[in-house]
Amino acid sequence: MNQFEKALNLTFVAESNFVEIPHYNGAGRPSTEQKPDKFTYRIEGALASLPSVRMEQLLCPSCFILASNQLDMQALSDEQLIEAYKGQQKVERGFRFMKDPMFMASTLFLKSTKRIMALLMVMTICLLVYAALEYRIRQALKEHNEYFPDQKGNGVQNPTARWVFQFFAGIHILVINQLHELVLNLNQYQLELLKLLGENYEQFYSDSG
Q: Kindly report the CA angle at 59 between 54 and 64, in degrees rounded to 5?
């Protein structure tokens, strides 16, 4: 208990109690005259904090330095600037995805500077489309209060576009007499997500007449 109290900063132990728990060898309920074979002890208590101490810590001077090329002080508030800065991690995750072996970018070897710049532009545009689709999927799920299964089968409203792509794997098109096309292996979750995204998305996975 003393070691625990020394580790506390904004809280303290308001009350504590040590409970002695007897243990008996053998099965069944012990008799009233039987003495315990051993004891274990449990610490019970309650924590409390002083609001004045907590507020003093919250009001302690601190700063978060950000540099921006936006010289108009009215264009972005401090809160918006920090939010934009913290949102960069989404872009970083996207570039990490492009480095993934599944993206197969490492299989291309380009010696010309122009071709490398062209590939970078194409990959950046792909990342932009990827991020826009992920944002649209999450917004559609939240607006309609719907859920999409994650890797463990739990319903979530913020699936990654990469997982959605993997979830849509295995869909095939059956061509009959070169006239009719049937889309196979669409399940309930895929159909519901396509419906939420809109008619244009549904048409990509609809059977031909």
A: 125
Task: Give the pLDDT score at 167.
Answer: 93
CB neighbours of residue 57 within 10 Å = 9
Say what the pTM is.
0.55
Asked whether 92 and 131 are in contact (CB, 8 A), the reply is no
Q: Which helix (H) or strand (E) holds 23?
A: strand 11-23
How far is it, in rounded angstroms, from Cα 108 to Cα 115? 11
Q: Is residue 85 very low, low, confident or very high in pLDDT (cuts 50, 70, 90)? A: confident
In angstroms, the CA 183 to CA 127 distance is: 28
28 CB burial (10 A radius; 0-12, 13-18, 19+): exposed
The structure tokens 């970078």 sit at 120
Domain boundaries, the chain: 2-58, 90-166, 168-209
DSSP state of 119: H
Strand partners, 20: 41
DSSP string over 67-113: --S---TTTS-HHHHHHHHHTHHHHHHHHHHHTSGGGTGGG----SH
- How many angstroms separate the Cα of 58 from the Cα of each of 11, 47, 51? 14, 19, 10
10 Cβ contact partners less than 8 Å away, ≥ 6 residues apart:
49, 53, 54, 57
